[in-house]
Specification:
By secondary structure, this protein is α/β, with parallel strands linked by helices. The protein is 32% helix and 28% strand. The protein binds ligand SPQ. Ligand SPQ binds next to helix 1, helix 3 and helix 7.
Length: 430
């Protein structure tokens, strides 16, 4: 396992970079292309470990996929053309792969077994297996289908109206994918809207999707048609650079072609409300997805309260926001974010414990955290705990701390941002 020693960025961060392709969109592009009829050409694909797990699973289901860096060509087989896999499907560290793929597999009369790494083994699966069973799929797993390994035997599904207790794009997408091959109409209603990449991309593949407030519906028996997908830069990866640009003195950075889908831009709202100097230019569209360049400069920041409907719009950015808040004047409260406890790690505990050890004034609450700033951070040893976003958040701490910070198990960062250190070096050497 690799580790990195991070030193204070004395000359600031400067220049322009293009962050890697969006992870959520890359997964969906491969999954939807695989169940479509005809060829799909994907560019800007994220060749991170999670999305490669999706590709490997689809290959085991008989799909021909050609990969060349960020270019991927998928020869769709139509959903009924997927093979019964001869071996266990391994999703690695990827929650998106196991939950979305479960929806597809639940709609097919084949038997499959899904496993992942130690982190996946602890993450709740009943949020998808529960509604898929209501649709008539047979699914088992540890603790009655709550945990991996999952065994799915599907087919002959009936559409449902599922009112989800949580705002989760993985739950919504899994049920909708099953609904595409079910009898009648399938509807998912969420308490707040989660990221809507599935709804947007299904349209690109020729599927009729109805969206009404917090509800999304599809009817069964629709055919997806191969297409061309250009993946925008990942705003969740950009978030680490945006926070670095705002807190490291003497910085001015521009991030090119970042996805600015409104269901993902909570981080931009938070930066603006905290007082960050930020501008958005070159707004355009990559298919159904809005994209823009984002410039950020070193800023004087103030604490704010973050909760309610904005949480699903920035859930993956909270580790970065926690670091940001340690450098803001006053109190920052993050609430309504219990979902952080069931990510790759318990992101409330891992962030609070590690930031506290570095000298931050931070406390965990039941549904988030409270941070009082600004506080200087001191050196020490930190760890990703196998969670890419925790690893990158700890690197941010090293860029501003008085002494160097060593971050253990930085390999995990390759899950979503394989060139993270190269991009950071570029910004430090301009
Ligand atoms: O795929 P995975 O491991 O679940 O990834 C994470 C991440 O930090 O990259 C969460 F740990 O992102 C999820 C996100 O939190 C990706 C996602 C999606 O692509 O649909 C949706 C969110 O999860 P959820 O549970 O709210 O649906």
């Amino acid at each position: 396992m690799r580790s990195h020693n991070i030193n204070k960025a004395l000359n600031g961060l400067n220049g322009m970079i293009t962050v890697p392709g969006d992870k959520s969109i890359s997964h969906r592009a491969v999954l939807f292309a695989s169940i479509a009829e005809g060829v799909t050409n994907i560019t800007g694909f994220l060749p991170g470990e999670d999305c490669l797990s999706t590709i490997n699973c689809m290959k085991q289901l008989g799909v021909n996929i050609e990969e060349n860096g960020d270019k991927v060509i998928v020869e769709g087989k139509g959903v009924a053309g997927l093979y019964e896999p001869a071996r266990i499907l391994d999703v690695g560290n990827s929650g998106t792969t196991i939950r979305l793929l479960s929806g597809i597999l639940a709609s097919l009369p084949i038997s499959s077994v899904l496993v992942g790494d130690d982190s996946i083994a602890k993450r709740p699966m009943s949020r998808v297996t529960g509604p898929l069973k209501m649709m008539n799929a047979t699914i088992d797993g540890r603790e009655h289908g709550q945990y991996t390994p999952l065994h799915i035997r599907g087919g002959n599904l009936t559409g449902i109206h599922y009112v989800s207790p949580i705002a989760s794009a993985q739950v919504k997408s899994s049920i909708l994918l099953a609904g595409l091959n079910a009898k009648g109409t399938t509807t998912v209603t969420e308490p707040y809207r989660s990221r809507d990449h599935t709804e947007r991309m299904l349209k690109t593949f020729g599927v009729e999707v109805q969206v009404k407030n917090e509800s999304v519906s599809v009817y069964g028996g629709q055919t997806l048609h191969g297409t061309t997908i250009t993946v925008p830069g990942d705003i969740s990866s950009a978030a680490f650079m945006l926070v670095a640009g705002a807190i490291v003195p003497n910085s001015e950075i521009v991030l090119k072609n970042v996805g600015v889908n409104p269901t993902r831009t909570g981080i931009l709202d938070v930066l603006t409300e905290m007082g960050a100097k930020m501008t958005i230019t070159e707004e355009t569209q990559f298919g159904e997805e809005p994209v823009a360049n984002i410039k950020v400069q070193t800023s004087a920041l103030k604490g704010i309260t973050i909760g309610g409907a904005i949480i699903p719009r920035l859930i993956d950015e909270i580790p970065a926001i926690a670091v940001l808040a340690t450098q803001a004047e006053g109190v920052t409260i993050i609430k309504d974010a219990e979902e952080l406890k069931v990510k790759e790690t318990n992101r409330i505990d891992t962030m609070v414990n590690q930031l506290k050890a570095l000298g931050a004034d931070i406390e965990a609450t039941e549904d988030g955290m409270k941070i009082v700033g600004p506080t200087p951070l001191k050196g020490g040893t930190t760890e990703s705990y196998g969670d890419h976003r925790i690893g990158m958040a700890m690197v941010l701490c090293g860029l501003i701390a008085e002494e160097s910070i060593s971050v253990l198990n930085t390999d995990a960062i390759a899950v979503s941002y394989p060139n993270f250190f190269e991009d950071l070096n570029k910004l430090q050497n301009n």
